[in-house]
Amino acid sequence: MTDDNNTRTKANAVFFSAIMVISMLAVGFAAAPAAAANNASDGSITFNDQTVNSGDVTVSVDSLDLSGGPHGVTVVITNPDAEVAGVTTQQVTPSEDVSVTLTSSAVAGAEHTAHLFNASYSAAQNANDGDDASSLVSNQLDSDTALVSGASRSPGDKTVSDDTVVFQGEDVTFVGNASQGEISPSSLSGTSGNREGTPLQMPIPEDEEPGTYDLNGPAAGDGGFSTTVVSPRINTAEVQLTTTDSDVSQVGPNSADKVKAYAEWNFGEAENVAITVEDPNGDDITNEVLAGSADDVIAYGDNGESGDAGSVDLTFANEDAGEYTVIFEGNDDIGAAQEYTIEITNQDDLSI
């Protein structure tokens, strides 16, 4: 999960496109909750990590206290600052999904929490965008937290659509809808904070202020197109034993062919991570130590890793004793980089 994108704005509906109108059923129910015969007094929900392209997130109602149904519930979404970022009240049955339209307080690429309430709890039902929700949670029936991301990209894809995250250092092309066509980066300006009113530059400077940039800048609304700038990070960069998945600083002859270069990073939707291995003299020996047909570029999920991680197998079986450096870095525009040093020894005692 990313934590560099904590910058929010009043216009952050940019994150998930225009606010959609809640269904007539939900609106009608919200207007007169007292008419519902069954309001849930206990229940559980699941809120899975998800990418949002239409402005809505999905929360699954796993169980409710009453058999039969449907039953009235209110679901409130809160952002990382515990501010309301979406509310819906409707009648549901167990194992039914609830769709919640996100508001401008939603934060691109951040963890959000879904809270389940009895529909008769008016404080939750009437909560407004940006309200402090901390006083509501004591009355919740259940909650669950998930990473909510904007429109997805593929590594190496430099064409960026509305509501998409970009990273410092990237050189991309913004393309809107059919009527907008290509959008000039300088027409997007910061919505608040230190970036307020500042046009976005391209390539995106490595010190560009993170946060939301849109066609309306600090004015209300996003003008029909927005993007969120995030600082790229390689969170973990290490050499691990393939037998234990533990990082090691020394390996001997018996383990020299049982290691892998492992990385976790936050910009995998934009770029993969390239590795370079240098011997004690500083010479590039990457191709010599890649195991089998392994590649020197790592993508999310490579080598069976899960989440925002990937790895590639290495072998130092034919290398002399000494200190070797493994360099991890973005494989295109992004300048994030980390180094890891491992010592190859002539002894089989190893250090972890």
List its traits.
3 domains; mainly beta; 352 residues; 5% helix; Immunoglobulin-like; 3 helices; five-stranded mixed β-sheet; disordered N terminus
Question: Can you describe what's shown?
Answer:
The protein contains three helices and 23 strands. It is mainly beta and 352 residues long. It folds into three domains: 133 residues, Sandwich (Immunoglobulin-like), CATH 2.60.40; 72 residues, no CATH class; 111 residues, Immunoglobulin-like. Strands 2-8-7-4-5 form a five-stranded mixed beta sheet. A five-stranded mixed beta sheet has the order 17-23-22-19-20. Strands 10-15-14-13 form a four-stranded mixed beta sheet, with no helix packed on it. It is globular. The protein starts with 23 loop residues before the first helix and ends in an 8-residue tail after the last strand.
Strand residue percentage:
35-45%
Shape verdict: globular
Radius of gyration over all CA atoms, rounded: 24 Å
- Structural domain count: 3
Give the quaternary arrangement of the chains: single chain
Main pleated-sheet profile: 5 strands, mixed
* CATH topology (level 3) name of the largest domain: Immunoglobulin-like
Q: What topology, given as strand order, has the largest sheet?
A: 2-8-7-4-5
Beta strand count: 23
